[in-house]
């Protein structure tokens, strides 16, 4: 594929989704420009080493966003998670403001195509979880604008399963679903592949909003897969009821899994036809997931690091 004349601006390029998208677009031959807060950071320099242009900017600084989009053909928009609230540095209100601002400036800049990454639990009714409802609000704003766009709603990332605090160091993995309850997941690497496919065939995806996932597994199945991949016996339990009662954030997420909303409703079979080679959980565990899993097993931890 040769898209060498056209430039896509990527937000969050030093992060998981933006990094995956920037790499995939670059591999497809696009010129990629990443707005980064610090062009001298190690992650920003790694982008440059991959042939990605970095420009200094901040989501709180509209003039830097305008400058990044000057002459651009497309935009990939993702906002940092507001899941940990103000303590993490990004409130739900910040996320909404940033998401709307990026879309508004894309329209004013005349970009030809816009892809926004939301989350699978977003939708027309409130979830009660700030960082999902923020995305529903940004989605609604984008749909009101006159430009060509696609909204993807990723399921939970496979990568979050290897975050500290979920008991892997004790061989007792805990997460949000019940042992026999299924939940959808996606490898972050596949978000890049999907977004690159959208930019390659924009007419096919214009005005679509859809959930994306690569696999669906129960808690017990996860334990089996983790046991096989690590060579260490791992059992599965849902987070204890007391924790879900004491921690309204985790309790809210578990409630959304029970409602099916966070468990995910992506049509994985159809996605596999449209985007070949999406990673299953097993394939992820044979690749990037295995070192992440082994590192999590080696890391003693107390609190759950989900956000
Ligand atoms: N985890 C999941 O399972 C899951 C599932 C679906 C959706 N999501 C959503 O995914 C989003 C996060 O994506 P991610 O995991 O790719 O993020 P991430 O890895 O945490 O990276 C965040 C990125 O945002 C940049 N950033 C932070 N503040 C900024 C600012 N003020 N101006 C410009 N850039 C800024 C960071 O740059 P620096 O290098 O400067 O820090 C970094 O590149 C969240 O909205 C989350 O709700 C997550």
Put the structure in a nutshell:
The protein has 307 residues and is of the alpha/beta class. It has helices at 16-27, 42-49, 62-69, 92-109, 130-144, 188-200, 202-205, 219-230, 241-246, 248-258, 268-274, 281-286, 289-298; strands at residues 7-11, 31-36, 53-56, 74-77, 113-117, 149-154, 156-157, 172-175, 182-186, 209-212, 215-218, 235-238.
Task: Characterise this structure.
This protein is an alpha/beta fold and 307 residues long. It has a domain of 148 residues: 3-Layer(aba) Sandwich (Rossmann fold), CATH 3.40.50. The chain is built from 13 helices and 12 strands. The strands form 3 sheets. A 7-stranded parallel sheet has the order 3-2-1-4-5-6-10, sandwiched between helices. A 3-stranded mixed sheet has the order 7-9-11. A two-stranded parallel ribbon has the order 8-12. Helix 3 runs parallel beside helix 4 and helix 4 runs parallel beside helix 5. NADP nicotinamide-adenine-dinucleotide phosphate (NAP) binds next to helix 1 and strand 7.
């Amino acid at each position: 594929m040769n898209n060498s004349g056209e430039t896509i601006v990527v937000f969050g390029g030093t992060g998981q989704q933006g990094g995956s998208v920037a790499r995939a677009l670059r591999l497809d031959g696009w010129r990629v420009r990443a707005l980064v807060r610090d062009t001298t950071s190690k992650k920003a320099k790694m982008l440059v080493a991959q042939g990605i242009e970095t420009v200094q900017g901040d989501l709180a600084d509209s003039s830097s966003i305008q400058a990044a989009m000057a002459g651009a053909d497309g935009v990939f928009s993702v906002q940092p998670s507001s899941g940990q609230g103000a303590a993490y540095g990004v409130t739900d209100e910040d996320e909404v403001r940033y998401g709307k601002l990026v879309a508004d400036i894309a329209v004013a800049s005349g970009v030809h195509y816009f892809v926004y990454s939301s989350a699978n639990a977003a939708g027309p009714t409130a979830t009660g979880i700030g960082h999902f409802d923020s995305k529903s609000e940004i989605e609604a704003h984008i749909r009101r604008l006159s430009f060509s766009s696609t909204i993807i709603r990723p399921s939970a990332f496979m990568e979050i399963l290897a975050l500290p605090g979920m008991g892997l160091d004790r061989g007792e993995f805990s997460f949000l679903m019940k042992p026999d309850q299924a939940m959808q997941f996606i490898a972050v690497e596949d978000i890049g592949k999907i977004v690159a496919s959208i930019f390659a065939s924009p007419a096919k995806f214009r005005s679509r909003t859809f959930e994306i996932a690569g696999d669906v597994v129960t808690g017990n199945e996860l334990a089996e897969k983790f046991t096989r991949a690590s060579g260490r016996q791992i059992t599965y339990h849902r987070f204890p009821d007391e924790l879900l009662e004491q921690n309204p954030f985790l309790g809210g997420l578990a409630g959304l899994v029970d409602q099916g909303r966070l468990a995910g409703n992506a049509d994985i079979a159809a996605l596999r036809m449209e985007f070949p080679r999406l990673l299953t959980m097993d394939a992820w565990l044979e690749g990037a997931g295995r070192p992440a899993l082994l590192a999590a097993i080696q890391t003693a931890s107390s609190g759950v690091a989900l956000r």
